[in-house]
Amino acid sequence: MERTSGKKCSLCNLGLILPSVFPTDPRSNIGAKAMSQAYVHGYELRENLRLHDQAHALADLFHSDTSYPAGSSVLEVGCGVGAQTVTLARRSPRARFTSIDISTESLAQARQRTEKAGITNVEFQQADLFALPFAAESFDHIFVCFVLEHLSRPVEALRILKKLLRPGGSITVIEGDHGSTYFYPESADAHAAIDCLVRLQSDQGGNALIGRQLYPLLVEAGYDGVHVSPRMVYVDSSRPDLADAVTLKTFTAMIAGIREPAIAGGLITTKRFDAGIEALHRTTAADGVFCYTFFKGIGVRA
């Protein structure tokens, strides 16, 4: 059985699995084995910190146009450590959120995060996306961030979620796309290191390039009125805050986190991987530039 688990990846949550700014949440394509064995980014403290930095840095980029009416019920799928949950709940204080994840450890951290933030309109529940405990038409809206990238059956997952929506209800999906990464100075070593993550995620049944596919995936799953918009994060030395939170603590930290499996798997040499990480750090210099694009898709159940 495929599952979604705790923390998103993808520049999972710019301004922020995830993301999180990059597809980096703790969930994955996952079989019946423990999530921690499948989530390409791992569940260590440094990954949780990375996700938090990512979500905080890109909150407006992801959520400026997301709000839910008073009294509406919203299902957040794959909430992980709650990096997106706090922002969602704050922006729609009179909506009721049910945030689910398969990882009990991630849910415990999410509860602590919302309690610390004084959030009271969120209920957390452990659940598997492919075996959800909710009745049909239970929710007005659904929010999914940095989850599909970890699934080998994303269309099936979207169809399952569609059944939970009431007629006229909406789904919002956010995913990154590592193929959208570009920077200056250019570095073949950096691209090679990034490609290692793309390949590792693919080997686990996921897709780190899924952002560009949101429109056809939502249409194939049967949603109406599908609209997808790119959300680019652009960083140069005039924004040292983003250089630190996004380029270094989110994206570069995410790539650096797969150093051991990439080298052990023969995907790249130690020398080249380390050169790639150094090159990504170099983009935060006075003349450096870093860009990454997330994609936000919205669809409706007729």
Could you outline the blueprint of secondary structure elements for this entry?
Elements: E1 8-10, E2 23-25, H1 45-57, H2 59-63, E3 73-77, H3 85-91, E4 96-101, H4 104-116, E5 122-126, E6 139-145, H5 154-164, E7 165-176, E8 182-184, H6 188-203, H7 214-220, E9 224-236, H8 240-256, H9 259-264, H10 270-282, E10 289-300
Parallel strand pairs: 3-4, 3-6, 4-5, 6-7
Antiparallel strand pairs: 1-2, 7-10, 8-10, 9-10
Helix pairs in contact: 1-8, 6-10, 8-10
Fill in the keyword field for this structure:
single chain, 302 residues, alpha/beta, Rossmann fold, eight-stranded mixed beta sheet, 10 helices, 10 strands, 36% helix, globular, disordered N terminus
Structure description:
With 302 residues, the chain is an alpha/beta fold. It has a domain at 8-181 and 207-236 and 294-300: 3-Layer(aba) Sandwich (Rossmann fold). The protein has 10 helices and 10 strands. It has helices spanning 45-57, 59-63, 85-91, 104-116, 154-164, 188-203, 214-220, 240-256, 259-264, 270-282, and strands spanning 8-10, 23-25, 73-77, 96-101, 122-126, 139-145, 165-176, 182-184, 224-236, 289-300. Strands 3, 4, 5, 6, 7, 8, 9 and 10 form an 8-stranded mixed β-sheet that branches. Helix 1 runs antiparallel to helix 8, helix 6 crosses helix 10 (270-282) and helix 8 (240-256) runs antiparallel to helix 10. The radius of gyration is 18 Å and the shape is globular.
Question: Brief description of this entry?
Answer:
The protein has ten helices and ten strands. The chain has 302 residues and is of the alpha/beta class. Strands 3, 4, 5, 6, 7, 8, 9 and 10 form an eight-stranded mixed sheet that branches. Strands 1-2 form a two-stranded antiparallel sheet.
